[in-house]
Request: fold
Amino acid sequence: MSQLALPLAWPADPSDDAFLVGPSNERAVRVLERWASWPVRTGLLVGPRRSGRSLLARLFARNSGGVVIDGAQRQPETALFHAWNRAEAANRPLLLVVEELPPAWGIELPDLRSRVAASPVAEIGPPDDALVRALLERELARRGLDARPDLLEWIAARIERSHAAVLGAVDALDARAMERRRGLSIPFARDTLTEAGLLGQPTPEDR
Reply:
């Protein structure tokens, strides 16, 4: 089983969620921890939807004293170009949080494109099995839903390996549990997640 570090050992306000660290995001965390050794003052944080990238960026800002531009792909390119230059001139770290890296992020301004190419990248990958289970357990507990280990294993083995699918499954279970005023069980999860279209291919024991 993959090892999981919980939570990220950076200064955090008690109101923050813990950032769960596993093999799929550990390298991104380490890149951000070592911001002082970046070859330039601007770094990129890229990750899938609902992967915790905004939380990780807030922790980075608190730890480094730097600036974060979340959703950088939606900002004017000239503004990003000047922000990159300001960070370099002030020797103050800047983190651009993006959904995709070039060339998928189609940067038209040549000067910005060259600067982004020189920036270190912290990339959050799809969650591994251990992180899927940990996310399910944490998010269900946050909703006040009690999930036994066998139920967590059952769900984790059948949903898509993505942060969005994990949180979508929790949302669906929470909504149905409130509607039906019922606790969680494997049959309840099967019906709920099937109706929500969140179950993948059946496993051998399901057949």
